[in-house]
Sequence to fold (302 residues):
Amino acid sequence: MTSTAKRRRPRGRPSLAPYLILTPAMVLFALFLALPIGYTVYLAMRRTRVSGLGLGKGARREVFVGFDNFAAAISDGELWAGWLRVLGYGALVLVVMLGLALLFALLLDSARVRLARFSRIAIFLPYAVPGVAATLLWGFLYLPSLSPIRAVFDVDLLGATTVTYSMANVAVWGGVGFNMLVLYTTLRAIPRDYYEAARLDGASELQIALRIKIPMLVPAIILTTVFSIIATIQVFTEPATLRPLTNTISSTWSPLMKVYRDAFVTGDLYSAAATSIVIAAISIVLSFAFLRVVRDRAFGEG
Fold:
């Protein structure tokens, strides 16, 4: 019997190696994703009931209420007002951030670019700054008593009409670098032969960018847009960090801020859990709706 025959595994006996390899990932998934989601759903379908004066033992008890908390969350005007603010904020952030990311990626991929490595690091560096630290840095620049911008333009950057733009500026400053890197990496994967052939046909760098680079970047643009939509819907760091500096940002400015207030300020974990599930559902619907609209371009169909 040859060594190959000796090593041959009998048919019908599945190997355990794949399951052993996947076990750590499955355990982590269960502990840090599946169980928290399950516990959130459990809390969202319960409520504390108080009987009598609520003083004796057993006067406060947790009861099953079904979908009552979800109905209350959906009918909450504060939640939908927060969604309207976030949609306006998101429209501003997405257009400016992805537009600048695309512009920088095209400029860095240009044949005539200088100091490309330094420029990539400089553009990407703000993304490496933690969100809270970045918001605090910009927040001090926004303060009327410290802001050099206020001294030049005489604009209150934390006023009721400008605070949304100030928060959008922080998000754009921190997010352009990541999206630029995704788009730039995609551009570097495109064969250079396409560009050389276009130049031989007399195409300018602008024409190459508009007719070759951007069409081939569509899948990457869609990917970065989906990521940005999800991040925008979950905006929390910027308004929560700037809130102590101004009275124009309410405790329910964004949906996630309302969840935080309900859970840790008013102590209503059940409403917070239901609201968080509603937010997650809306995030999924918006992301899939966007993908549905651009499905043909995203997957190269049609």
